[in-house]
Amino acid sequence: MPEKTDLERVVNEKIKPIIDSSMQKFLGITIKELSADISDKLKRTPLIDFKADTSMPFKKAKKLFKREYIKKLLQLKQGGISDVAKTADIDRRTIHRLAKSIKKDIERFRKEFKPEYFKETAVKSIIEETLGTFKDTITPKKLEKAYKNIEAISKDILKELPTVQLNLKQALEEFEKEYLKKALKENLNNISKTAKAVGLRAETLFRKMRKLGI
After folding, report:
1. Whole-number Å distance between alpha carbons of 143 and 155
2. What is the span of the domain harbouring residue 69?
3. Crossing angle for the helix pair 168-186 and 191-198, nearest 10 degrees?
């Protein structure tokens, strides 16, 4: 399995030029911030993208993220509990417990989902969501053209994108970092206000910030 540093190198040297070229082709311009946002998401969690929903308390959001992580790995591994446990670096019993509520989905993953399809869907989702954040900057006509060509862009990216799968501990750290950075930004970097907003003690928030390098 490639190291994350290898992924960063590939994204910077091979994938970012693909994104820049695609944006120039379909938008008529290259938006550095848009290209950087897509690249950063691909570096972070190329196959397990997530949204940091700060509208819910930190602990609840973290619990939901953990469930979504397992669900997406089950899709990627076509419902294989052993493979998911190995990738997540946790025991099978934990996977069974977390997957209990999506038992029917597991059978569907085994029959319907192919890893290639899931990877392409994950990359397409990253591009779609990032484009959506620039809807006030890009004209509707150009944005529509870019959306129509997302599948082609995704396939070009996937030709170069190595598979880097975060284990559960690593994925949770990424989630905590993004969630807390977003919450801090929303509360003007005021630690006391942020802690209250996300349901944590100020001391706990400060300790997590130091640990995560925020």
Report:
1. 19
2. 4-212
3. 120
